[in-house]
Write a structure and sequence with these properties.
3 helices; alpha+beta; 3-stranded antiparallel sheet; 145 residues
Length: 145
Amino acid sequence: MKAAYLGPRASFSHQAALEIFRDTTTQVEALPTFADIFEGVQSSQYEYGVVPFENSSNGSVVQLLDLLADRQLKYSDVKVCAEHYLPVHHQLLVKLSGRDAGTWQDGLLELRVSSTTNGQTKQTSVVSVLYELTIELTVSQLNAA
């Protein structure tokens, strides 16, 4: 069996596909667009498609919802058959230059940004950056009915 995922290799969709099919002989292949995945499943080139449905930071993936609505009736055999939750953790790594460049407080990194205009340096802004971002990606597994 073959399954398509939204590429490239090492993307979150690839990681989800590997987790979903880890105990099977299903081969996973990258495709560049949602439409390519839907067309591949509809034409039976792939038994499954793995696509991101929503994530906790940005919400639903609108392009995917449009394809699932199938207003042009191009993908009448494509159905959602499962979902998989993929926790994603990002960590910010910063090299501070100078002792007044930034400080940590309560999991936030406060950066002091300076700019130079006409030879004069001035402190222009303070930006707080979340130390660690965790999102949850919901991945829908598609197959032809």
